[in-house]
């Protein structure tokens, strides 16, 4: 028995939807992509959803469309996937890393104010492991400054705030999802941007398709025709019908997937709470859908525990090495003590809908055996 940290839940339903796309002969972006966007609008309550090819593309395009450019600064947590600071750099801006709250693992709004400068143009928090960031608290810190907020909701698709699905209604300028193979909902690969403003949405749709816009032009024959022409800088970020078909099939099963993740996380809580060597993060699983299950152990045990689990065919580890400690991002030596401490103590253990209760008990038994 080999237990992966995460595994996509795909099967006959997704294959059936892909087969329909094959029959249609239209594999690129088309009506299936549009239907997927409409279903996301219905679920999240967002007025406008723009489907793209990856979560990284969603972050980059959101930043770019909101005017983030060379010389600007974007504040974001260091404990996140490298796609976040990479998206900032792709705009020519500079990532400024902020410390996190030790309980939520999200960016700590109290740590943002000292980082604000005249160059700060955006804040891009991550909903870590499915826990929604406190956007109103970030807005209070910003005050009247013209600073955009782009919520990275890659971990939190389906989670609730005040009984409503995460969308773009709490003061965010944009919310970005990732639908890569191991997310709460997958398209194989994919992402989406949620916005309120109709003009911004139209701009995003143009920019995701190489800056092309369908409009009326005078052709070479001097006759008026309708076609697509380039009207601005753009990128090849659109989502294909194939990926959207997978997403549609996933949406039809999403309640079952979500219930399964919640049930398994609750079982982990129940079993691991008996181990004094392990600290669990208390979560309200009636409101959040856990993307991953994180535990904390003493730093002197963490790496040995990961190795021990691997010896027992269990995949576990620190999903994200703090970005500010990676030489590439050119952090200027300022310490982030909470992030650094958690990076020595945290590990992610297996969690995905296909995981069985028996496998959860096996994982916990091996953690207990290590400390025994």
Description:
This protein has about 375 residues and is of the alpha/beta class. It folds into two domains: about 240 residues, Type I PLP-dependent aspartate aminotransferase-like (Major domain) (Aspartate Aminotransferase, domain 2, 3-Layer(aba) Sandwich); about 120 residues, Aspartate Aminotransferase, domain 1 (Alpha-Beta Complex). The protein has ten helices and 14 strands. The strands form four sheets. The protein has a seven-stranded mixed beta sheet. The longest helix is centred in the C-terminal third of the chain and has 32 residues.
Question: What descriptors fit this protein?
Answer:
14 strands; 372 residues; Aspartate Aminotransferase, domain 1; alpha/beta; seven-stranded mixed β-sheet; 10 helices; single chain; Aspartate Aminotransferase, domain 2; three-stranded antiparallel β-sheet
Order of helices and strands: HHEHEHEEHEEEEEHEEHEEHHEH
CATH class of the largest domain equals: Alpha Beta
Q: Runs with pLDDT <50, length 5+?
A: none
Could you tell me the mean pLDDT? 95
**What is the third-level CATH name, the topology of the largest domain?**
Aspartate Aminotransferase, domain 2
Task: Using the alpha-carbon principal axes, give the shape.
Answer: globular
CA distance, first residue to last residue: 22 Å
Derived structural class: alpha/beta
Question: What's the name of the CATH homologous superfamily of the largest domain?
Answer: Type I PLP-dependent aspartate aminotransferase-like (Major domain)
What is the gyration radius calculated from CA atoms?
22 Å
Largest sheet report: 7 strands, mixed
**Topology, number of strands:** 14
Relative strand content:
15-25%
């Amino acid at each position: 028995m080999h237990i992966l940290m995460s595994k996509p839940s795909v099967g006959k339903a997704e294959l059936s939807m892909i087969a329909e796309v094959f029959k249609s002969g239209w594999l690129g972006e088309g009506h299936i992509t549009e239907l997927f966007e409409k279903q996301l609008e219905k679920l999240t309550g967002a007025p406008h959803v723009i489907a793209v090819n990856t979560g990284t593309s969603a972050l980059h395009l959101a930043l770019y469309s909101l005017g983030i450019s060379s010389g600007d600064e974007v504040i974001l947590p260091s404990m996140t996937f490298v796609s976040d600071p990479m998206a900032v750099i792709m705009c020519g801006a500079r990532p400024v890393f902020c410390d996190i709250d030790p309980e939520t693992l999200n960016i700590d709004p109290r740590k943002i104010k000292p980082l604000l400068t005249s160059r700060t143009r955006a804040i891009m928090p991550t909903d870590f492991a499915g826990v929604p960031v406190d956007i109103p608290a970030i807005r209070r810190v910003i005050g009247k400054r013209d600073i955009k907020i782009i919520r990275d909701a890659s971990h939190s698709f389906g989670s609730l705030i005040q009984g409503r699905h995460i969308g773009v209604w709490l003061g965010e300028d944009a919310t970005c999802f990732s639908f890569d193979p191991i997310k709460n909902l997958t398209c194989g690969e994919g992402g989406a941007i949620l916005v309120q403003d109709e003009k911004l949405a139209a701009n995003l749709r143009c920019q995701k398709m190489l800056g092309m816009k369908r409009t009326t032009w005078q052709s070479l024959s001097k006759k008026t025709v309708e076609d697509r022409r380039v009207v601005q800088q753009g990128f090849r970020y659109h989502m294909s019908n194939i990926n959207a078909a997978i997403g549609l099939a996933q949406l039809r099963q999403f309640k079952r997937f979500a219930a399964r993740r919640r049930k398994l996380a609750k079982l982990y809580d129940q079993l691991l709470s008996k181990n004094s060597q392990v600290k669990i993060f208390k979560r309200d699983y009636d409101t959040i859908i856990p993307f991953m299950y994180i535990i904390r152990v003493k730093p002197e045990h963490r790496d040995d525990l990961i190795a021990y689990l691997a010896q027992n065919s269990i995949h576990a580890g620190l999903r994200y090495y703090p970005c500010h400690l990676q030489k590439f991002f050119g952090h200027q030596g300022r310490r982030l003590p909470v992030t650094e401490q958690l990076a020595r103590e945290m590990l992610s253990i297996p969690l995905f809908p296909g995981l069985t209760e028996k496998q959860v008990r096996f994982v916990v038994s091996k953690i207990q055996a290590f400390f025994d």
